[in-house]
Amino acid sequence: MIDDQTSDSSQADLEATTESAPIEGAVAAESPVDEAKVADVAEGEDEAFDPAVDMPMYRSGMDWFVLRVASNKESYVRDTLQKKVQIEGLEESVGRIMVPTEKTRTLKGGKTRITEVKLYPGYIFVEMKLDPAGRIPQDVFFLIKETTGVGDFVGTAGRPTPMSAGEVEKMLFDSRMPEEDPTVKLEFEKGDNVTIQEGPFENYDGTVDDVMPEKGLVRVLVTIFGRQAPVELEYWQIAKADE
């Protein structure tokens, strides 16, 4: 059994690392997508219940907190904490643990790939109940502290700071279960100057004339023998021209 002096010292060690950076900085700053942070998602999973939609934004006595975790460990930490909470019977103290993602569909060579990209790399969001002093309950503290990949909570004065209602609303919106058949996300707009990187017109420059996300195609106007001609290309075959 852990005495009060030991637990206070251990908790102080973890909480002393908390920073006073505004929570909105963690929630609002969406990092650029990194190939290493893209995970394949199994298609056809049937999950009717959505904790981000089918449960109230706030539950009695609980608030939402931002927990820093090791990059690329977001899903691992979430799954591990959820299992530990169930095993220890701490559902009254720790509720939902969310990792907001965006699901996109890519087309290449006629093949479809569904990927899920983390919107806030290095952070997870924990629904949790603090003790009357505003500190993490001792049993919850050790459960979280002893999980591989866990950093510290965003907070001030050594105590986790609850997210604002606006931040929680945005986080839950981003955490909704993705659509079963998302459209292809294209980064091109009509009028963009592009360079063709693959195919019979490789190294030609052109201008985007139309974008067709449902097909994963972009129509590009290319000058051939002194005349402009429309060429339909898959989005991965072109890149924005250097400014």
Descriptive account of the structure:
- The protein is 21% helix and 31% strand.
- With 243 residues, it is an alpha+beta fold.
- The chain has 2 domains: 4-174, 2-Layer Sandwich (Alpha-Beta Plaits), CATH 3.30.70; 193-240, SH3 type barrels (Roll).
- The strands form 4 sheets. A 5-stranded antiparallel β-sheet has the order 13-12-11-10-14, with no helix packed on it. It has a 4-stranded antiparallel β-sheet with strand order 3-6-2-7, with helices on both faces. Strands 1-5-4 form a 3-stranded antiparallel β-sheet, with no helix packed on it.
- Strand 8 (155-156) and strand 9 (159-160) form a beta hairpin.
- Mean pLDDT is 77; it is low at 1-46.
Q: In a nutshell, what does this entry contain?
A:
The protein has 243 residues and is an alpha+beta fold.
Helix and strand element order: HHEEHEEEEHEEEHEEEEE
**Strand order in the largest sheet:** 13-12-11-10-14
Number of helices: 5
The general outline is: elongated
Unreliable spans are 1-46
Approximate strand percentage:
25-35%
> Major sheet: size, sense and barrel closure?
5 strands, antiparallel
CATH class of the largest domain: Alpha Beta
* CATH architecture verdict of the largest domain: 2-Layer Sandwich
In the residues, how many domains can be counted? Answer: 2
The gyration radius over C-alpha positions equals 23 Å
CATH topology description of the largest domain? Alpha-Beta Plaits
Structural category is alpha+beta
Terminal Cα separation, in Å? 65 Å
Name of the CATH homologous superfamily of the largest domain: NusG, N-terminal domain
Instruction: Please tell me the overall pLDDT.
Output: 77
Range of helix content: 10-25%
Find the count of extended strands (DSSP E, 2+ residues). 14
